[in-house]
Amino acid sequence: MSLMTWTKEQFATNVTQHDQEHQTIFDMVNKLHESAGGADRSAIGKQLDALIAYVAEHFGAEEKNMIKCSYADYPQHKLEHDKLVQTCVDLQQQFHAGKAEITRDTTAFVADWLVNHIPNIDRRYSPVMNGAGIV
Ligand code: FEO
To answer: pTM (2 decimals)?
Structure first.
């Protein structure tokens, strides 16, 4: 069974681009979860790098749209993004230096963060973006 399942009811932001990005992130987390803790460090490293790059790209896209619609909670939202990216980049460096492993606890941490962030933080921008024509 997958670690994460995207459902419209739980995760839809009503911004098509960001809903698609969230679904891609869920797929990538699920794939990394399958590999996590396994022997193939090279494959895990590639999946980890791709996931972090994609998440950073997604955060950048959301931030661009928040700025575009003068979203009042932008600074706080960006701070949440920056904190997660910093945590992940630190882990990525540790992993590539051979000082840390990617385990299923790691992927569960990322999944928990997303399951909290998307419904409680991302969804708040929906009416503002929709009102600015970002749908
Ligand atoms: Fe979809 Fe604010 O991350």
So the answer is: 0.97
